[in-house]
Write a structure and sequence with these properties.
The protein is about 40% helix and about 15% strand. By secondary structure, it is α/β, with parallel strands linked by helices. It has one domain: Rossmann fold, CATH 3.40.50. Strands 2-1-3-4-7 form a five-stranded parallel β-sheet. Strands 5-6 form a two-stranded antiparallel ribbon. The radius of gyration is 15 Å and the shape is globular.
């Protein structure tokens, strides 16, 4: 198993696609919680959600934002990006819109979730790269992510550390 990473994503829209990426198996990510488990965390309010995120990020070296059609701008995705950056973690994004969902559909390409962040006067995108597999076929997209995710993570960590 490779690096320990934290996956950030829009649960309602993309949990199936995220499961597909996690199934690659080369990255140790936090366990995906079921809808019922997440509802339990949410019932505890904002502090409960923040505590869950903070706990899950401990010991992770990189944040991977899996970018679906509505990921950018989501409150907790923004929190995760900011926290990961402030904690010195590598940060990267992967567009997953061309992976099939549980019904066999793809979705629209989402916006860059790093576009609204700056580090000093520089855009966060100088350090947080996004990758968009150049295929429309879900199997090819999966193969592209599987073949590159480890090097993308290493690049993100290297960029974050000034290399």
């Amino acid at each position: 198993m490779g690096r320990r990473c934290f996956y950030s994503f829009h649960y309602a829209n993309d949990s199936w696609r995220v499961s597909t990426v996690k199934g690659i198996g080369t990255v140790e990510g936090q366990p995906l919680v079921s809808g019922n488990q997440w509802e339990e965390v949410e019932r505890g309010g904002d502090r409960s959600i923040q505590r869950w995120i903070d706990d899950q990020m401990k010991g992770r070296s990189c944040l991977i934002v899996l970018i679906g059609s509505a990921t950018a701008g989501r409150r907790w995705v923004n929190y995760e990006i900011e926290k990961a950056w402030n904690d010195g973690k590598g940060v990267l994004g992967i567009h997953i819109h061309n992976l099939l969902d549980r019904y066999g559909y793809t979705s629209a390409k989402g916006s860059n979730p790093f576009a609204r962040f700056t580090v000093g006067q520089q855009p966060l995108s100088n350090w947080a790269k996004t990758y968009d597999p150049p295929f429309t076929d879900s199997k090819q997209v999966y193969a592209n992510i599987a073949g590159n995710i480890e090097s993308w993570i290493e690049s993100a960590i290297k960029l974050r550390n000034g290399g």
